[in-house]
Amino acid sequence: MVANMTEDQLLVLVIKYIKEAKRTALQQLLDELHPYDFAQLYRGLPEKHHHKFLTFITPDQIADLIQELEYDLQIEILQQLGIERSSKVMNLMDNDDLADLLNELSVDKIQEFLDVMKKEDSQNIQSLMSYPAETAGGLMTNQFVWINADQTVRQAVDKLKTYAGFSENIYYLYVINDEKKLVGVVSYRDLLIADLHEKIEDLMFNRVVAVHVDADQEEVAQTIERYDFIAVPVVNDENVLLGIITVDDAIDVMIKEATEDIEKLSASGKDIDFNTKAITASFRRLPWLILLLFIGLVSGSIISGFEDTLDQVVALIFFMPMIAGMTGNTGTQSLAVVVRGIITNDIDRKTVIKLIFRELRVGLIIGITCGILIMLIAYFWRESLVLGLVVGFSLFLTLIVGTLAGTIIPLLLYRIGVDPAVASGPLITTINDIFSLMIYFGVATMFLTQLSGL
Amino acid sequence: MVANMTEDQLLVLVIKYIKEAKRTALQQLLDELHPYDFAQLYRGLPEKHHHKFLTFITPDQIADLIQELEYDLQIEILQQLGIERSSKVMNLMDNDDLADLLNELSVDKIQEFLDVMKKEDSQNIQSLMSYPAETAGGLMTNQFVWINADQTVRQAVDKLKTYAGFSENIYYLYVINDEKKLVGVVSYRDLLIADLHEKIEDLMFNRVVAVHVDADQEEVAQTIERYDFIAVPVVNDENVLLGIITVDDAIDVMIKEATEDIEKLSASGKDIDFNTKAITASFRRLPWLILLLFIGLVSGSIISGFEDTLDQVVALIFFMPMIAGMTGNTGTQSLAVVVRGIITNDIDRKTVIKLIFRELRVGLIIGITCGILIMLIAYFWRESLVLGLVVGFSLFLTLIVGTLAGTIIPLLLYRIGVDPAVASGPLITTINDIFSLMIYFGVATMFLTQLSGL
């Protein structure tokens, strides 16, 4: 029945069950839902029903629910449940999600929960919480099934059956030796086809790809993406297996990283979404804006350095916004190519030199095209050949410089270990403003005698 | 032995095997590699060895290799192999990868390959090739294992064993009825724990999440991400199961979409990477640049409309680049928030109104902050209170307008069905240039009598 109901129909039914206190019916209905749909349902449920809803469902179901929710709803549920029932739910949660949740709480609160947890779970969680959030250690879970190389397929299958409910990842079985070092991996597909008496060591794949526990989360995501893995093992310096990271966590990392790239490219500040408060969003955006304000004033002082030129040729001002804008635009275009390219390419000297020369040629081509175009426009609009030549030649030069600045600045940042995406579009635009004004007024001043009086 | 060798050591060994014509040793070595490492090895192998290498390895290995390579290397291999051996390799490839490869060839060439393929394979491929590339149909494979609801766990396990080598996805088993309609799904974990005599219909999860064959690839990726799936089934209007899409293909879509967002936001044109030729890159970038050039000239004509004001107050020019730049910057920041927010939020009237009012408040806060700052700077730098007030008040107004433009323009585009990311940073910047100049010179003209002579 549940199979074909819409979200709204489900919600109506759930509220009905809550009002009529039909525990079993409610629990059965929820068992038919995916955790994501379950969480959507909870988000749609009026707040006055939350308490009853939580008392009616099983700890297992609460664990599923809480793992899908955002932080503030998680905290609300923990408060509703009280410490004892919360700890029961926490025992059922995936370790990586639980560690993330606990990391958001105060030290006192964390200790309170750890104290009532089973000792083994509490130790597992504490060891996970010791890794920095954006590393492999911070992403991994230590709930996984491992086996010794000298065991048989039958033993492996039996072990899997025992742990199937407990383990998050049931796609690969990692093989370790007596020192707990990772020596191989067997896929479930291989186990399925294999003879029950075969030994794991004869079956396993021994060139295992693993990530180091200190590896950056971006490297983890890249490994999973490149190898099309469902999960990747995490090891320490001694190659001891510490945990696994599953593909769904890698996807979350990729989405986060892509969003961060866009945030940086637009200098929009970290973590602003539709729900961020105006005052918070403003304070995240202001540092960049104030920096750019001062850089923008540099442009102003450049112009004031050419006050004499401007006084004599007022017509020059009309083309100023266009030239400054175009230089910023071409810089932003080059920047985007570099920022995305760095993710997928290995950056060596050869690649860098090749890229810079490519962009130089791009700058030449678009410089010639746009330069000739604006020369004709300036000539026909203001009826002065000299002005046309000055504007056209300036645009030609600024487009080359702007293109190269948009390429070289992010590459230099990458070289010195700074994320090149911080060379945001606005920053490149503002820096290119300065270059373009210097070139434009420089060229104009050279031709001043021919231009004056326009 | 292979387990701990570096990429370079492997390459040296491979070349040695090729030179000494040690087929078996080469094949055994390659069997120990992941397809990604295998492909990296092939990319590193000097071209003179390619032909021998390809003749030494098995069709199975070539199929693994070809699926990991980029298009031009794929074509090179097909040419080296000749039509007959190519078709043998194609029979071993995953259907979705094969369909993508064939789609790149000429119609004649496609027909040639289809003719020599097994009839069943050829039909499967042709049906896959009929779906548009960026839809669920274009992403899916039709190699998967299905089962009827009234069969038992034992029958399911037997079927899986038979097809394990053939099926790309061995994580879920999809359940269909007599009309081939999708009615349920069972995970391998569930099969593993279940009693062999149980019926599939008693075990299966019947609220199956599926995507429609015409669904956009972004929707497919979102579904897999939200539900943490390893694969998602694809159905038609009648809910008939047509194929499956695996998580690795969804990851490729996400990376592509994020890159496209950045390309659009920076108006950098489609598909420019480190290897694009300069002339191609230029022609992809020029349309945007030329459009922006003309919009930039509008700014120029606005200035020329205020020629009298400018003649009287030359000092106004010094603050012009800063004011225009800041308006563009705040617009770009707002744009980034909207573009990323649209991906993760449901956009209804309430959300839109809430967002616009939030950004209005953001505009007010940053407008007041930066306005006061620049007022003080202008006052102390140029020693004129009126100029300070004019510049400060103008920046206050332009920041509010710029913030709202960066919010409302992409929302309007989204409303009329245009991808809001085309409202790129450069476009918003250039449009905001126009707004800012109108406001700045407008305000200045109002205070002209107090300003003149500065």
TrEMBL record, chains A, B:
GO molecular function, one term: magnesium ion transmembrane transporter activity
Subcellular location: Cell membrane; Membrane
Annotated ranges, domain CBS: 140-203, 204-260
Keywords annotated in UniProt: CBS domain, Cell membrane, Magnesium, Membrane, Metal-binding, Transmembrane, Transmembrane helix, Transport
Record flagged with keyword DNA repair: no
Family annotation (PROSITE patterns): CBS (PS51371)
RNA-binding among keywords: no
Membrane topology value: Multi-pass membrane protein
Pfam family, one: MgtE_N
Signal peptide annotation: none
Superkingdom of origin: Bacteria
Transmembrane segments: 286-306, 312-339, 360-381, 387-413, 434-453
Any single GO CC term annotated in Swiss-Prot or TrEMBL for this entry: plasma membrane
InterPro entries per the UniProt record, alphabetical: CBS_dom, CBS_dom_sf, Mg_transptr_MgtE_intracell_dom, MgtE_N_sf, MgtE_transporter, SLC41_membr_dom, SLC41_membr_dom_sf
Stored SMART domains: CBS, MgtE_N
Protein family membership: Belongs to the SLC41A transporter family.
NCBIfam families tied to this protein: mgtE
Record text on subunit structure and interactions: Homodimer.
Function noted in UniProt: Acts as a magnesium transporter.
Name this protein carries in UniProt: Magnesium transporter MgtE
Organism: Halalkalibacter nanhaiisediminis
